[in-house]
Amino acid sequence: MNLEDEIRSALRPKEPSPEFTERVLARVYGMPVRPAPRPWVRWVAALAACILLASGAMGYRQYRGERAKAQVLLAFRIAGGKLNKAQKKVQMLNAARRNNS
Amino acid sequence: MPERASSRPGEWEFASLVRQHQAMVFSVAWHFLRDRALAEELSQEVFLALHQHLGTLESPEHVLFWLRKVTTHRALDVARRRQRRPMVSLEDAPEPVAVTPAGDPMLGAALRKLIAALPAKARMVVVLRYQEDLDPTEIAAILGIPIGTVKSQLQRALTLLRGKLTRLGEVDL
């Protein structure tokens, strides 16, 4: 047994309490002392963030779908209007030809 | 020559300095004072002072030296103020119940008790030598005492501890 090694072992560095850093920063910057977050709080926060992201992505997909649908309907409406006009013109021409003959 | 800090570190850098050195500062105070609450209070004061002096510290090595110096001097001041509580000399210190083989926590506890009974300066020399692994020159610079004094105090402390432990458990040290 070596006395110096035994003293070294007896005087191993120790950590202060877990809130030590927070307390020092609170005193230096005048911040309120926050208790250290519990591990489950991080998991809940991560889960909430995932749910938020997933629902956001789904909402965005739905919004894009609705927008595409509205554009298709508008295109149909425009095309329908033009078709009606052309049909009326043809009918008028036919009627005029019949009258001439 | 170490690079000079360009500006006063911000909150994030200061927090990381605290995290980096808190075990050293707290342990020097705790092993010297043997009072956890007092050691934490003293350590907080040391870091508050560090925050005020950061602008004058030139490198990480300088910060470490400064922290060791301020911690040891403040701990010695606290010990001086506590002297109204009678100090027990090493010879009069209560002897631990038993001494057990190397690496045993009981031996560690016995040694800590015996170290706590050393005179303040000798105790600090032992803490800096064996907790911080500093050589006598570095200890002399931190405590501001001649290197010869550090060596003689260290030698005397080791002789006393060895004798006390040998008497206690007839351990061959």
Comma- or semicolon-separated keywords:
heterodimer, A: 101 residues, mainly alpha, B: 173 residues, 7 helices, globular, disordered N terminus
Give the fraction of residues assigned to helices of chain B: 55-70%
Quaternary state of this entry equals heterodimer
For the terminal residues of chain A, how far apart are their CA atoms? Answer: 131 Å
Poorly predicted runs of chain B are: 1-9, 89-102
Averaged pLDDT of chain B: 83
- Helical content class of chain A: over 70%
Whole-angstrom Rg of chain A: 39 Å
Give the rounded overall mean pLDDT of chain A: 88
- Class inferred from helices and paired strands of chain A: mainly alpha
Estimated radius of gyration of chain B? 18 Å
Counting DSSP E segments of at least 2 residues, the number of strands of chain A comes to 0
Order of helices and strands of chain B: HHHHHHH
Strand content of chain A: under 5%
